[in-house]
Structure to design on (286 residues):
C-alpha cells in the first residue's frame, strides 16, 4: 500500500514538473516573442495581439476552461482527471506569472535562442505528461471529441490546424516572426517524440551463451530483473546454446554486459534500444 502511495505521489510530482516546464516555456519565451506554433498558446498569442485589452494568459485560461467543460460534457466522469489538473495548473500559472512577473519584451536579443527555449521547454514538459498518461488539455481535448464523433485522421487534422495558426502569425506579426514560428512548429513536431523515446529508453538483451546459470543468477539476484530462457542450437556447429531475453535500464545494461563477458567470453550479445515495455517492473497495461 505504501509503495502504491509513493508511486502515486511521484507521478503527480512529475506531472506538476512537466506542467511547470510547459508554463515557463510559453510565458517567458513564447509570449514575449509572439511565437505562435499552434495549439491554445498559439491562438492566444494571436488573439492577444488583436484584442490588447486582454492578455494571452487570459485567453489561455478562457479557452482551456471552455475545452474542459466540453470534455466533461462529452465524456462525463470518464474524462481524464490528470488532463484536467494539468490544464488548469498551466492556465493558472501563466495567468499568475503575467501579474507577478510581467514581461514587456523578450529577455534576450537573440530570437533563435528564445525560440529554442520556447519550443524545447514545452516539448520536454509535454513528453513528461504524455509519459504519465496526461496532457495539458487544449487541442488534445478537441482531438478526443473529433475521434469520438468523426472518422477524421486526427493527427493530420491537428497538424493542419497548427499550420494554419502558425501561418496566421505571419499576418499578425510580420514575416520574420512568422518564419520563426514555422521553424518552431517543425522543431516541436520532432522534439516531443524524441524526448519521450529518451525518457523511456531501455536496453533489450539477447544473450546467447553456453554458460547460462551464473548469468541468470546475476540478473535475478543482483539486478533484480527477470529473464526468459530459450533453448537454441548453433546452425554452423549444431552445439546446444541458451538464449536469454531480458530488459534493463542503462546502468543495469552496462553491469550485465560486463558480467557476461567475464563469465563467458564467447557469449554472443545483441543489445537494442526499446522505449515501449509493458509488464511487471515497467509500465502496466492500461
Amino acid at each position: 500500500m505504501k509503495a502504491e502511495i509513493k508511486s502515486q505521489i511521484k507521478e503527480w510530482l512529475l506531472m506538476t514538473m512537466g506542467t511547470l516546464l510547459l508554463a515557463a516555456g510559453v510565458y517567458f519565451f513564447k509570449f514575449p516573442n509572439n511565437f505562435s506554433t499552434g495549439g491554445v498558446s498559439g491562438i492566444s498569442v494571436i488573439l492577444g495581439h488583436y484584442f490588447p485589452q486582454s492578455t494571452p494568459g487570459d485567453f489561455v485560461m478562457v479557452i482551456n476552461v471552455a475545452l474542459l467543460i466540453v470534455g466533461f460534457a462529452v465524456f462525463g466522469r470518464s474524462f481524464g482527471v490528470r488532463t484536467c489538473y494539468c490544464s488548469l495548473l498551466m492556465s493558472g500559472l501563466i495567468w499568475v506569472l503575467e501579474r507577478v512577473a510581467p514581461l514587456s519584451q523578450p529577455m534576450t536579443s537573440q530570437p533563435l535562442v528564445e525560440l529554442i527555449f520556447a519550443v524545447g521547454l514545452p516539448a520536454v514538459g509535454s513528453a513528461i505528461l504524455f509519459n504519465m498518461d496526461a496532457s495539458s488539455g487544449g487541442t488534445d481535448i478537441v482531438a478526443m471529441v473529433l475521434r469520438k464523433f468523426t472518422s477524421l485522421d486526427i493527427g493530420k487534422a491537428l497538424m493542419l490546424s497548427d499550420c494554419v495558426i502558425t501561418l496566421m502569425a505571419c499576418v499578425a506579426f510580420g514575416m520574420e516572426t512568422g518564419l520563426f514560428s514555422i521553424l518552431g512548429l517543425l522543431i516541436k513536431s520532432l522534439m516531443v517524440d524524441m524526448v519521450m523515446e529518451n525518457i523511456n529508453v531501455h536496453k533489450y538483451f539477447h544473450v546467447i551463451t553456453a554458460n547460462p546459470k551464473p548469468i541468470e543468477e546475476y540478473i535475478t539476484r543482483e539486478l533484480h530483473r527477470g529473464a526468459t530462457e530459450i533453448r537454441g542450437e548453433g546452425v554452423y556447429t549444431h552445439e546446444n546454446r541458451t538464449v536469454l531475453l531480458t530488459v534493463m535500464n542503462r546502468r543495469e545494461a552496462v553491469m550485465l554486459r560486463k558480467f557476461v563477458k567475464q563469465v563467458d567470453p564467447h557469449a554472443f550479445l545483441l543489445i537494442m534500444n526499446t522505449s515501449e515495455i509493458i509488464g511487471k517492473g515497467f509500465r502496466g497495461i492500461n
